[in-house]
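Teaching note: in complex prediction, the entire set of molecules is handled at once rather than each chain in isolation. The prompt given to students was simply: 'Predict the structure of this complex.' The entities are:
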Amino acid sequence: MEIFSGEIRMSANESLGLWGVPIAVLASAVRGGTPFLFVSVGECLTEKSGKINLGLEGVLLMGAMSAYAISYRTGSPWIGVAAAGCAGMVLGSIHAWLSQRPRVNDIAVGIAMIVFGSGLAFFLGKPYIQPLAPQLPGIGFANWCNNPAVRSAFEICPLFFLGAAVAFTMQWFFKSTRWGLYIRAVGDKPDAARAMGISVVKVRTLSIMAGSFLAGIGGAYLSLFYPGSWTERISGGQGIMAVALVIFARWNPVQCLWASLLFGGAQALGPALQGVGVSSYYYLFNASPYILTLVVMIATCSTKRTLAGAPGALGSGT
Amino acid sequence: MGTPGTSPANLELQAACRSSVPMTSNHETKGPGMSETQSPSVAPVAATKVGPGLPVRRSYRWRGKLEAVVIPTGAIIVSIILFGIFCAINGAKPFAVYASINKAAFANWYAWQETLVRAAPLMLCALCTAIPIRLGLVIIGNEGALVIGGLFATAAGLAVPNASPLATQLIMAAAGMLCGGLWIMIVGALKYFRGVNETISGLLMNYIAIAILNQMVNGPMRDPSSLNKPSSFPIPDEKMLQPIGNSSVHWGLVYGIVACVLVWFLVHHTTFGFKMRTIGGNIRAARIAGLPVGAVMLIACFIAGAMPGLAGMVEVAAVNGSANESLNAWYGNSGILVAFLARQNALAVIIVSILLGGLLASGGILQRVHHLPDATTLVFQGLVFVVILFSESLYGRWKFFREKSA
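The expected output is the structure of the full assembly:
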């Protein structure tokens, strides 16, 4: 029952000496950043439609669990990825339905979905902590190098490229398609959208479900590629950090990609430093992603002005 | 915030400061809780029109109160039924599970003691969410405040080795409340000065608090004799918080109940509470009325954080005996559910904490007898949470509960 705590592990490169630190951080930007990427792009889509989904932490855990379980059962990790997306979508539909009831606050629903999603994931995932499920394949980008540590550090999962493609596609989608316009209209001025004949409820429901689908895939990455096992502390708050990251990225999917890489790199700092012998503040360094998120939020937010790109109706309960 | 901060009992008071624009849980984008982007509200006008002297005759007010009891009770019953279905799907007999929970929680005096020991920290933690929500802030940094409170209470207790037991406990309680309070005050200050979303920052601070705890008990505060579970040096037995009479329930329960009653009094019967509710109702109106919004917000957050801080001290001084990772036992996060289930009413928090304490006490028997994993109680909490939020949308739906205003 450790969803609000937990450490993110990283194989540090003892053999590389001090060079291990920048290499580990760089490699981890991609490896550790991918789940952030999926969750933040999903949250970006959701928030563009004017609703906040804090429950993506629960979706992430549920996705990780179902991907691992299905991959173990069927032997195919890709079916596991699809199952994770679908599990996310189911949780997303609950959030979409509940958060659009009158007088129900979407932040509160998000908290409820964190508890519900993680409870369900821990409950159903109990039998899968021991067995080994087939993992997603990695594409080696440093196979020319003789150092096995470097080689394994630069093994990149195809899901990362999928996520990056989703980020660029989503930006185009918001900017240049009719459906993208609908979502932005619903998120900025629901009343105007309603006057245009757009169903606000339908657009938001679909946006939240699609966003949760992406977050579920982020969970599949956690359990099927890196760190590559199913445990109850696997997500360690990455779902929450990704929500904060969307604000930092100013609701722009491509900037979500860059922000995710930054956060992925920050994750590796503590373990990598310990790997080269700097271990006196191990636990505090492990908290560096959380501290970084907080610092980024303090620097980004303001009481005076509305942030550029922020959907107008976000959090207004309309 | 939609409604969580509004109990029907004080509707007529809040009507004085409620505008036609619903109070929102402002995302950090729109400025902080004090959003300037909302349409200029009609609050000042409304204030003159609908004053506290609204002619609702007292004899009719039972309808709203009945609604406030019937709907949450109904929600709990519905979630118990859903939980039964969930158990049935997973191969356990629902009625046997209910019987086990009841047996483990409330069947005899021994079960009651187990329940009450767990209810004490829940009460204190729930207040951490229940107080700021009056201001429209959804703060869920309960777990972090508990951990920080427990850690610094231990440090303070160990720093005065020669003090008498009572003095040690007072010092520990003061340190726990001070540090827990400051911890949540940071969340409030970030919201007020920088517009940082208080829900997200509170959650992040939970992780940071746990990291600080781990750093301290693995580093400067570590007792070298604690091998497989790094802990601080223990508080001497004679200075621990004693049980009440010859039961196994410790004095923390009294702390919890007293704190709930005091908070209830503070919120409903003092000018400070009125200021809080005014700000929660309509922050612009509160500003125009000249209320010190920032000061009220920071003080309320301090009081809110002091409660789980005290819970952390209680856990160390009555249960664990030293600071270690057992502090992070999920009481803080369960406290969020208690606060929402009690609809932010501090007196209702006492009852709901006892109910949830009973559920937590039954975790072991569910594992042993029904072979359900320990996450079962978490699933149940999630179900209750979802259903209780849904029930918020049912208020005012039935004519029977409507007050007949003259």
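Point out the following to students. The longest helix of chain B spans residues 165-194. The domain at 8-19+60-395 of chain B is CATH 1.10.3470 (ABC transporter involved in vitamin B12 uptake, BtuC).
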